[in-house]
UniProtKB/TrEMBL annotation:
Keyword Oxidoreductase: yes
Gene3D superfamilies assigned: FAD/NAD(P)-binding domain
Keyword annotations from UniProtKB, A to Z: Flavoprotein, Oxidoreductase
GO MF annotations, alphabetized: oxidoreductase activity
Cofactor requirements of the protein: FAD
Ranges for domain FAD/NAD(P)-binding: 7-286
InterPro entries per record: FAD/NAD-bd_sf, FAD/NAD-binding_dom, Ferredoxin-NADP_redctase_2
Statement: the UniProt record of this protein carries the keyword Calcium: no
SUPFAM superfamilies reported in the protein's UniProt record: FAD/NAD(P)-binding domain
Subunit architecture: Homodimer.
Pfam families tied to this protein: Pyr_redox_2
The protein's name: FAD/NAD(P)-binding domain-containing protein
Amino acid sequence: MKVANYFDVAIIGGGPAGLSAALILGRANRRVLLIDEGKPRNRVTYESHGFLTQDSVKPAQIRQIAQTQLEKYNNIIYKSDVAIDINNTNNHFEILTMKNDVFNVRKVIFSTGVKDKYPPIVGFEDIYGYSAFLCPYCDGWEHRNKPFAVLGSTNKMYDYTKEISNWSHDTILFTNGQSGLTFEQEQDLNLHGIQVIKKPIQAFQNKERMLQEIVLDDGSTIARQVLFIQHIDIEQATALPSKLGIKLNEKRAFETERHGKTNIYGIYIIGDAKNIFSGVMKAGYEGLEAAEVINAELIEEDWKQQSADR
């Protein structure tokens, strides 16, 4: 087993949150280790939107620009690898990777994100990120005024459907066999020209990943070009925080305090791993915020140690 050098901070996960944290900590004169598997959640996304200076840029391009900019900091070490184990020893941490490297660090940021679990409907995976989306603020503008479909069955569908209809007045809500709407809510949607279809969905037909028709279980089809889904099941991309004793909440996000702090001193969690969905700008800000707090923590620890040594 190879033993690598000692680092101030290890960042596990190289999405917008992790990359932002790495940049700020690097500029704070910290030795930073960034471990990234290279499989971001948004790799299925055709373009990223709503991010100043990077609007309509592909997510992979944004990551490449960020990684290139980090290269000038010789105190930031990037490792294409997967963290597979972590041990806490007196608030210092030992990280083992899939490539059999061992890293010893003072602080750890998990920005590992989550993995989407697609609904079991034929064709959904083909259109997700191209003509099927979660966030209207991210993708509504590019598809405005097209025939929309909204998919979901929870009691949140009334408000979500109203929100989606802001981008298209030709909107149909599909509950896929069940509905959490009240009678009054369904009537109100109908009053505003939004049809509610409760029949189960058999498939999404597409052409070059662009939605064409929704096939219902009775064989009938309804032409739609864009799908917004209110909820998609997820699982955490790593279980390492759970091993350390950090719990998941009812949404299956890791429980944190302000700035991504956790109940384990020295462990921070930011981005989708704690929010389920963050968006590029929010994730980047969380990285900056956590980095500043961690650097202040390190300064205080070093100051106290220097005082004790005198």
